[in-house]
Amino acid sequence: MTMHRRLARSLGALLVASLVAGAAEAALIRGPYLQLGTPTSIVVRWRTDVAEDSRVRWGTIQGALSDTMDDATAVTDHEMTITGLTPDTTYFYEVGSTTTALAGDDTDHVFNSAPATGDSTPIRIWAIGDSGYPDPVGVVRDGDGVRDAYTTFNGGAATADVFLLLGDNAYFAGTDAEYQTDLFEQYPGFMRTTPAWACLGNHEKFAAGTDTILQTGPYYDVFTLPSAGEAGGVPSGTESYYSFDHGNIHFVVLDSEDSISDPTAREVMQDWLEADLASTEAEWLIAFWHRPPYSRGAFHNSDVEQNEVDMRVFMNPIIEDFGVDIVMSGHSHHYERSYMIDGHYGLSGTFGPEHIVDGGLGDPMIDNAYEKSGLGAESHSGTVYVVAGSASEVRSGLGTHPALPVALESLGSFILDVDGDSATGTFLDNLGAVLDTFDMNKAVSCPATPAVGCTAAGKSKLVIVDKDKNKADKLIWKANKMNVDPAEIGDQLLADTIDICAYDASGRLFATALPAGTAGQWTATGSGVKYKDKSASVGGVKVAKIKTSTDGKGLLLAKAKGVHLFTPTIPVSLPVTVQAQNDLTGSCWESVFTALDVSKNADGKFLAKN
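Predicted structure:
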């Protein structure tokens, strides 16, 4: 063989090798996206066009990712579980192969690990139901607008602390191709920064190969869900229904499609739900599933469709027995929202006043927040049911249901902000307008009406300021020239709470309970006790002071400010009564302000002296 022929053959071999290597180089065609986030772990998934091994890198400093995990198996659907995370910490990440990075290590590929279980850090939940139509069609479909309106509402960030998919996530049949366009290409920013928690909708069942018993089909392939209790709660043994914890919230996710329809499978789901809810000590309990137990949707009537009837008959009694606070569903392409209700499991014609725990709208700008007396589960304390099925399409023909005072034919999404012992639900339309809001407050131990027999202050001052920006809200109450016996205070550093309660002529205006012990940040003073909380995280109260005296020189003082302070709508109806109530001793002290004492009660400010 001549040198020329040997050179030609060598060059040819190099060319073939180069072409083969070029053909084998993978491209990213899905993701990366996040699943199953816990305080110490998270699942990272992505898809490539050709099979290759997997590598994920992560760390807290962009450009200096400190940890790496490899999997030598060549696959196109990559799934890696990162462990050893620090709770409530920001991480950057990167995905690819052991030879090539495909995406990441930038500000678009970042996530926050979940807070430690039980931590009461503020949590924003974004819930979208029936979001699977990606393309705008006039005023009927506008998933883009719903997504973008929330992003603007969220300060321009395509993220949330908890991202919920309420079913029918990809139309028409929940195929893999439809999930690609309707979820991954529609919400890329959300999917790569926030783990999505999903429930099965009726349209997901249409895809070929879908079997909820075998847990097969595109829905089960797309999502990684905690069937073994990996994210808290009791293992369900199935991805069709499950639970997870995030901070001080426990979520339960139910199957309103197949498990509810089969008597044997339904009983298994019921038994699991009871065991799961009995096991949690979370401050908030939230449930979601696809088909709503209460709805008058254009095509979906909860009196008619058997799955909705069965969810109401078989699951709601368990939900309410264990004190679930809020239930979210989709299916009806509208927004509907109940009163705070309990105990109604029949058809709509049987709904009556006896099923209403609170018949208001829960909107402090209209009436009052929904209130519960303690943290954690309170059996049959009232549940608010939300239907948010218009994240991509709205349908005309919405009817009325006696349990649902709010019913809107509007595109939009549902936002739930949970902050300590208070929560705010918001329906945001596709144009960025807030069309409904309600508050729910917990640990409200003040009675509905003023206590009787309280020691009256000889001289008092009350200032309430209600601003458009919540951080500017303010409360000052000073009551002095009264008897405050040290025995009536008790050992506030170790014992129970002091409740600060305010009432006008129509009822309770606001209430907060200052916790005792170390959590309450109480300290002893020379003449009593003092409470100090720089972050004003409990009812907005920054400072409270009690000065004891048996000769008419006692004093009570509370100063509160900021977003945690619940302020009543101004003007208020007189008279106004403010009380401090000691849960340990039963003692209470008060100031009463009448019409003669008022110098200003308008324009967002109430000022009274006596």
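Summary: The longest helix spans residues 3-24.
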